[in-house]
Specification:
single chain; alpha+beta; 3 strands; elongated
């Protein structure tokens, strides 16, 4: 086992370094399927004050909320932080 160590070291030294691909900018989210395309201005606002603007069936997801993994393209997901501020809108 130890007699192969120099060979492994030599091979490791000759190996090319792998560059990590750069993270692409996230694609703009199309919220028209879940009726959230005109709600972009609620991001950063308290969910309690904008809840009347949410479409029927919208799901408010807190940071510690348990949610099902079923995908419904017509359901609006409203993610919030611990302070209750809207952080993200998505369909699903």
């Amino acid at each position: 086992m130890y007699r192969f160590t120099p060979i492994f070291l030599l091979l490791a030294a000759c190996a090319d370094t792998v560059e990590k691909p750069r993270a692409a900018e996230p694609a703009p989210v199309d919220l028209s399927l879940c009726k959230g395309d005109e709600l972009g201005e609620i991001v950063g606002q308290p969910v309690a004050t904008v809840s009347h603007l949410l479409p029927e069936g919208a799901r408010v997801i807190g940071p510690d909320s348990l949610v099902t993994q079923d995908y419904r393209p017509n359901r609006l997901n409203v993610s919030t932080d611990k302070a209750g501020l809207v952080t993200r809108l998505s369909c699903g």
